[in-house]
Amino acid sequence: MPLQIVRNDITTMQVDAIVNAAKRSLLGGGGVDGAIHRAAGPELLEECRTLGGCETGQAKLTKGYRLPARYIIHTVGPMYWDGQQGEEKLLRSCYRNCLALAEEQGFETVAFPLISAGAYGYPKDQALQVAVGEISWFVMNHDMLVYLVVYDRQSFQLSKQLLQDVTEFIEERYVREEDASVSASRLAQETEEEQPPCYSIRHGVFPKKNQPAPPPSAPAPLAAPAPDSEGIAPNLDAMLKQLDESFSQSLLRQIDEKGMTDAQCYKRANVDRKLFSKIRSNPQYKPSKPTAVAFAVALELNWAETNDFLRKAGYALSHSSKFDIIIEYFIQSGNYNIFEINETLFAFDQSLLGSH
Predict the structure, then answer these.
(1) In the beta sheet, which residues pair with residue 147?
(2) Model pTM?
(3) In the chain, which end has fewer C-beta atoms inside a 10 angstrom radius, N or C?
(4) What does the pLDDT profile of the chain (356 residues) look like in tens digits?
(5) Helix 322-332 and helix 289-298: axis angle, to 10°?
(6) Nearby residues of 140 by Cβ (< 8 Å), 6 or more positions away
(7) Quick one: CA dihedral 277, 281, 283, 287, positive or negative?
(8) What is the distance, to the nearest Å, from the Cα of residue 277 to the centroid of all Cα atoms in its chain?
(9) Contact 14, 39 (CB under 8 A)
(10) CA–CA dist 22, 158 (Å, integer)
(11) Which helix (H) or strand (E) holds 219?
């Protein structure tokens, strides 16, 4: 996936570069900044002393030293006051300048923290929207794998309205499904307790008191395949030739029908080019369920079309899965922003779209 949201310690990420949410002096501090300096070792501080600090919204590069990452991109996020002091513009500038510097250096993988969402007081849900907005725009137009690294659940928050809407949508369907299952189970149990063996409601057969129940009837034999016009039963080879189109064939057909390019489709699906090449070259390729759903989102299929599309990959959507219900919420709402969908899936501990 070009954009992955992961829960991890950013100092352990094995990437070309990690981004440090630094102080203007670049001489270390608390939070992510302090953790990166401690993990990188004293050599990082020595190099930072030569850089002359960094202005808010800008970015500077150092080596990674003892970190698994080869380099560190240092950026200074804005302090949050009231949202009216240009904070959002500065925060967006942090992401843009870091990504531009990464592209200039030819980096293929970069990991970001949520800049300014800690001690600098930027509201976490708004910081997340800025981060995902800027990164998603970049990966739609460039080939780079970007991680948004979240240390713990407290540092990751959806907008309150979206969280409330999705939670209510899940509860309305997921709980109802559970209740229906419990009711059906209870009804079956009551029926078993009330009725003796071999009791048949359909045929009205009631065994007499103290009389053994009749043995169950033998199952009816399977019907033979219907003969064709010449009176010959169809063979397996002939039936297999009538298989429906595969997932891969359906995907490629719909890309053409919608006038999309391959790149437009796999980028909207948050799927990397190598995986798409596998799907294109193998008509019988079976994707993971999150990947199949990702392409349904990229194609902007409606709910019925999505279910039909997934069946070609051997999957179905139901109300017994929170993942499925979240997908239903966004498709029924006509919201095909895969990055916003993934934010929500992450918040509910579900697999992200595009993973395989």
Answers:
(1) 4, 111
(2) 0.74
(3) C
(4) 688 888 889 999 999 999 999 999 998 888 889 999 999 999 999 999 999 999 999 999 999 999 999 999 999 999 989 878 889 999 999 999 999 999 999 999 999 999 998 888 898 888 888 998 899 899 888 889 999 998 766 666 666 777 788 888 888 888 555 555 554 454 345 434 433 333 333 333 334 444 444 454 444 444 555 555 555 555 555 544 545 789 999 999 999 999 999 999 999 999 988 899 999 999 999 999 999 999 999 999 999 999 999 999 999 999 989 999 999 999 999 999 998 998 888 888 888 998 65
(5) 0
(6) 2, 267, 268
(7) negative
(8) 20
(9) no
(10) 24
(11) none
Amino acid (1-letter code) at residue 68: P
The catalytic residue positions are: 33
How many angstroms separate the CA atoms of 12 and 14, rounded? 6
The CA distance from 303 to 309, in Å, is 10
Provide the token pair at 122.
């930027």
